[in-house]
Amino acid sequence: MKHPARLTATVALLLGALGASAQEGKTPQVRAYENGWYRQAFKSVGIVYLVDTGAEQCFVSDARVGGIAEISCRALKQRPEWIGIIRWTRALKSKSLN
After folding, report:
1. CA distances (Å), 38 to each of 1, 9, 90, 91, 95, in order?
2. What is 78-98 written as a DSSP string?
3. 90 band by pLDDT with thresholds 50, 70 and 90
4. Are the C-beta atoms of 45 and 13 separated by less than 8 Å?
C-alpha cells in the first residue's frame, strides 16, 4: 500500500462524517454550483465532501484543519444523496455476511 497514513486519515474523516450525520439529525443538503462542482458540509464536525463532475473526482476536507484528500467516488456514491450526482461509476455491491 502506497500511503497507509493517508488512507487511515481518510477513513477517520469518513467515519467522522457518518457520525456527524447522526448527531445533526438529518443529512446536510448537497449544494450544486454552476461549474459542475457539488458540496456537502457536516458543520458540527467540519467535514466537507466535494465532487467535481467535470474531472470525475471526489474529495473530503476537514475544514477545521484545512486538510483535503481524494476519496473513492464509488464509496461516496454509497450515500443516497450522491447517487444521482456521481453517475460515472457504479455503486459498490454489498457482500452478504452469511
Report:
1. 29, 22, 18, 18, 29
2. TSGGGTTT--SSPPPPPPP--
3. confident
4. no
How many residues in the chain? 98
8-46 pLDDT tens trace: 555 555 555 555 444 556 899 999 999 999 999 999 899
Q: Which long-range contacts (CB under 8 A, 24 or more apart) does 58-61 make?
A: 58/86, 60/10, 60/13, 60/14, 60/17
Joined grid coordinates for residue 10: 481518510
Sign of CA dihedral 7, 17, 28, 63: negative
User: Which residue type occupies 91?
Assistant: A
